[in-house]
Amino acid sequence: MTTAIAPVSLPADQELLARVLRPYKPNCRYVTAMTISAGDDGGVRGFAELAIGESCYIDDTGHLNAVEVNIAYNQMLYYVIATSVRERLIPAFADWTMADYWRRQLPDILITKLTTRFRRPIDRSGFFGEFELRYATRRRLNPVGPALIALDTGFRFWDARGGRADGDVTIAVGES
Question: For residue 43, what are the CA distances in angstroms to 37, 84, 129, 131, 137?
Fold first, then answer.
């Protein structure tokens, strides 16, 4: 379980966001700005502004679709973890450096379960997102194996016209 930290609110860091999004092709960088808040309950939240100019894989559907939700979620997750490592917001990542994060961002952070509920179509040309880290735990699956960090997270997306989607995601972070 996470250990409580003092409440903190961090403004958008465009330099960090650009580095977090570097692995994505330029037309697949959906998060345009993101702020982070951490409460004394150990939870961390991110609030994002997002835009998808053109789909990277399909003709225009006219709305945010499941693939784009997954990509947008990943980008918010990566930014929250990077910020949390840098600012020491999540005790489960206490021994990580930023070099550790950059090395592990793509190969060691895995979605193990993703549930999405689409409530109303979302205009993908401009929408908002909220990422919630509910808790993080560090454990070993066996006594001699590497540690694993498990994250319980949630998200929601919405637009100015009442579009809405939300979901729950379980993440496994390998400790290679």
Answer: 9, 11, 17, 11, 12
The sign one gets for the Cα dihedral 93, 137, 107, 176 is positive
Amino acid at 87: E
Whose CA is closest to 117, among 176, 41, 66?
66
Locate 117 and state its tokens. 């509920």
How many helices, marked H, and strands, marked E, lie in the chain? 3, 7
Token pair of 22 as six digits: 């570097």
DSSP state, 92? G
pTM score: 0.92
The tens digit of pLDDT for each residue in 126-142 reads: 999 999 999 999 888 78
26-67: pLDDT as tens digits:
999 999 999 999 987 778 999 999 999 887 777 666 779 999
Do 111 and 76 form a contact (C-beta atoms < 8 A)?
Answer: no
Say what percent of the chain tops pLDDT 90: 77
Is the Cβ–Cβ distance between 75 and 155 less than 8 Å?
no
What are the structure tokens assigned to 134, written together?
């509910």
